What we know:
With 459 residues, this protein is an alpha+beta fold. The chain is built from 14 helices and 17 strands. It has two domains: 6-98, CATH 2.40.50.140; 123-168 and 203-446, Bira Bifunctional Protein, Domain 2 (BirA Bifunctional Protein, domain 2), CATH 3.30.930. The mean pLDDT is 96.
Amino acid sequence: MERTKINVLLNLEKTPGPVLIKGWVRTKRDSKEFCFLEINDGSCLKNIQVIAQNDLANYPDIQTITTGTSVAVTGPLSPSPGKGQKWEVPATDIDIISLAPESYPLQKKRHSDEFLRTIAHLRPRTNKYGAGFRLRSEMAFAIHKFYKEQGFRYLTAPLITGSDCEGAGEMFRVTSLDPKTVKEQGKMDFTADFFGQESNLTVSGQLSAEMFALALGDVYTFGPTFRAENSNTSRHVAEFWMLEPEMAFCDLKESMDHGETLVKYLTRHAMEECPEDMALFTSFVDKSLPKRIDTLLNTPFARISYTQAIDILQKSNKKFDFKVDYGTDLQSEHERFLAEEYFKTPVFLTDYPKEIKPFYMRVNDDGKTVAAVDLLVPQIGELIGGSQREERLAVLKNRMAEMNLPMEKYWWYLDSRRFGSVPHSGFGMGFERFLMMLTGISNIRDVIPFPRTPGSIDF
Ligand code: 4AD
Ligand code: MG
């Protein structure tokens, strides 16, 4: 018989008769003449209840079944008299695939997130993490669906790069040089390295995306990005996934419109396609989630300039750990104050001082600010960072000179401003931060399968 997944079985209107299910035992309860097994196969949050009568040939073995044991169960799908479940399976056959001994760490119903991080290889077998990673999968699909519907093309940007997009110097080096040789020579001879020059893991696919937007129109990249910033916060990991749309013939306002449409679309998709998993987050992670989701879906996002934001923060009477000064980057406490307390909605901040932003952002007419945009959201702070790009060759070259960037290395980037340059805009959205917002999960380590953070790469 072919195996049927539990999410399929639980949604059936009529019984198909005998079914074969395969999964892991979450709990076993014994009574005199039978035992109940709760089986989960990861296809959905819910378990299916299996009843094993003591007349089964291998009943003594079945009695030894422990939490975590993998089993294959055959039996007719039958209406359940129990509360809260439509179907159950009185087993005609239970095959124990592999017993999990008592040392299986997921015995208790609830474990701390800290503990579960130490067993990241097992935590997807819990309700909360199972829900989180099913949602993550569904959201990745929703991103591609959204962009397909919007007529965008998907670009896979290279992960190994020779250029620094953000110019923040937070890159992981890629090299094939032998550490022994480097030691002997007392330096890294990049001419002898694999690519004949310094290379790094990408911090952003943007520069590639820009080239393709200027060819295919609207494109997006969605893939892993790497940052060697030594920040041990609940919102930073060294390897994370970024979604980066890049749109030709598009200004900053249109880019914000796009970002707002995107966030609302993905949120709606989560509510429609993952109602059970989303309900779990409300019950067990964050009771205020429904209210936040409602705001996300139904309230227009606020839009103000950086200068206005500084003004609001300075007049706020709120005690911040970091001082608010025009010309400095906002700290997450400031970002959260604006989104959580002041606007109580996501808020786009635009037009930052050029000194605190990368070279590629379009210089505004005031000559002091650039057409940058960050989307700040409650609980998280920065979810999206982007800009209108500097499309004017002369202005771009000026900026690069001001910032001491090696112009010759960016010859191909500059070419795009030489040959049919057009206004274009785009942004990056941190996928993990988006998932945090959607679930209320407050640590980024808990929405990514195997988090990479300073000093930690066990899995
Ligand atoms: O603001 P960022 O640095 O923007 C860029 O890299 C642009 N080149 C994107 C573009 O315009 N195409 O990063 C974009 C987003 C941030 O808003 C944040 O959500 C996320 O990426 N992010 C991180 N997420 C997790 N861990 C980190 N260390 C992150 N750094 C940035
Ligand atoms: Mg940013």
